Amino acid sequence: MAISFEQLRDANPAMFQQSATAWKDWADAALIHAGYVDDRVHPHIRPGHWDGMVAEMARGKVTDAKTRLTNTAGNLKSIETVLVQAGQDFEQAQQDLRKGIAQANDNHLAISSTGEEVTVTIPADLLDESKHSPSEIDRVKTAASEAQTTMRAALYRANQIDGGVEKALNGLFPPKNGGPGNNGGGPTGGHGPSGWNGDYGPSGAPPLQKPSGNVAEWIRQAIAVLQQHGIHLGPNDASYIATIIQYESGGNPHAINLWDSNAAAGHPSKGLMQTIDGTFNAYALRQAGGAAPNVWNPVDNIVAGVNYALHRYHSLANVPGIRNIIHHAGPYVGY
Fold this sequence. Notes:
This is Transglycosylase SLT domain-containing protein. It holds the Pfam family SLT. With 335 residues, the protein is mainly α. The chain has a domain at 199-335: Orthogonal Bundle (Lysozyme), CATH 1.10.530. 57% of the residues lie in helices and 3% in strands. The chain is built from ten helices and two strands, in the order αααββααααααα. It has helices spanning 5-10, 14-45, 53-106, 134-172, 215-228, 237-248, 261-264, 277-283, 298-313, 320-327, and strands at residues 110-114, 117-121. The chain has a two-stranded antiparallel sheet. Helix 5 (215-228) packs across helix 6.
């Protein structure tokens, strides 16, 4: 069931951390029991103390039990990590939603919502050319567009997070008979795990420091790098990049997705444009006089994401999510 505008606005993201703490406790308990096998059981079944066929079978069973407990602890720990990251991302999505609400309210705009869809409309009085100058009307239109994009992107990310956590949990505990309508197959069915597998990929986990900087400035620098490599963008492309960033990461250069199919394969999407390591390495371009590209560097990440999108879709206006928004053909979709 999709998260609605009201649910995201009023949610308590701290519940993610509380749940993560419980999973950590379960992981610790599993490790304690694995240690109990070593301390209390092994001394009684070691060779010389107990020999014979039955003893060998007992040692095999005990070793298997310890392995299962250790593996279970690792799985539970991975869910803890997913929940911690999900809580941080969900809180950021909520903050973005509230930021969009505040922007709409500050400009006296109307907000309407139906489920996970939110629309900002401009009262007719604010568009009255007899009362307002063209620049004032343009400012209000820009504010309405920004507020709507911010809120829709926040809802998109919140629903991605919610669905991703469900996949990660189903990976550990597949629903009986599989997911709805899939007869046991598929990503949430009974044929294996989905969601993060505990591997951050070759570029590692995100840096620990809090994100800083300005998305507009990062985009400006990225466009300059692309131009250095002979890639020239159109007049609307900066806004398209900003829109992709808003939906994909909310402007957080340290964002990481630990629950989709890429994460399950061991290479989670990272950074402003949510690129996987393989895509980043294939499409990254070195800044003039700069160090080797880094997926966590916001400018490098934008450059790689844009370069990839241009190679795949030939123009940023043709990226599916952007095309849907431009032509009102549907919701944003990942690129």
